[in-house]
Design brief:
Blueprint: E1 2-3, E2 14-15, E3 23-24, E4 30-31, E5 38-40, E6 44-46, E7 53-59, E8 62-70, H1 80-103, E9 108-113, H2 124-128, E10 132-133, E11 161-165, E12 179-180, H3 186-195, E13 202-203
């Protein structure tokens, strides 16, 4: 794994992978150069923000960037958290495009806790730059929410952890494959929150038998 270093709390963005299944390009793991303190008009300020962590990987014939993120939480006064998150979204797009320019690799998968649902205004910069939320297209056996702090799976429909990519660049994605780990019962939810996390995994599948970038 590669662990980020930037946070005002003892929580960091971590990129982890199965080394038997995928290979990390040497020297590619890095924190992206975005602001950790954002100051906006109206006394809106947030500091100790976590930088995204990126790594370039090879799985079979498919090579790609993964960018792990944790955007500003919804905790705070008025619209300030959303304003900060929108600024982070803008900087994330810029940092991703810098990765593409420097490496020549256009396959970029953004994954992590964006702290808002699909369609929220603070995430519009990602949509405007043609990133598609794969969590819009969940499998039939998927859970409905990724944030389960209520412990009740029937009230846990807060989907704020996402996988995003650009269809124009990453055709290797298996369409409609995104799954939110389903919590089937309240007892399972209580056990999971106590032993694991108040967020459940979200995953998306990709074809790795070819790199479609090479066939244009």
């Amino acid at each position: 794994f590669f662990e980020g270093t930037t946070s005002s709390r003892v929580q960091f963005v971590v990129l982890a992978w199965d080394a038997d299944e995928v290979d990390l390009f040497d020297g590619s793991a890095q924190e992206l150069d975005v602001r950790t303190t954002i100051q906006l008009p109206g006394r809106c300020e947030s500091e100790g923000l976590r930088k995204p962590v990126a790594g370039r990987f090879q799985a079979g014939e498919f090579d790609f960037w993964v960018v792990g993120v944790h955007l500003k939480s919804r905790v705070g006064s008025g619209s300030c958290p959303s304003q900060v998150r929108r600024e982070q979204s803008k900087e994330l797009v810029s940092a991703v495009d810098d990765l593409i320019d420097a490496s020549g690799e256009r396959d970029v998968i953004i994954a992590g806790d964006l702290n808002e649902r699909i369609g929220h205004r603070s995430l519009e910069p990602l949509v405007d730059s043609e990133f598609i939320f794969q969590t819009r297209f969940l499998t039939d056996n998927s859970g409905s929410g990724s944030y389960i702090k209520t412990w009740n799976p029937h009230q846990s429909d807060d989907l704020i952890d996402h996988v995003l990519l650009r269809y124009s660049d990453t055709r290797e994605v298996v369409r409609n494959s995104t799954t939110v780990f389903p919590v089937e019962s309240q007892s399972e939810g209580i056990r999971y929150v106590r032993q694991q996390s108040d967020h459940v995994p979200v995953w998306t599948s990709f074809y790795i038998d070819q790199d479609l970038d090479d066939n244009d």
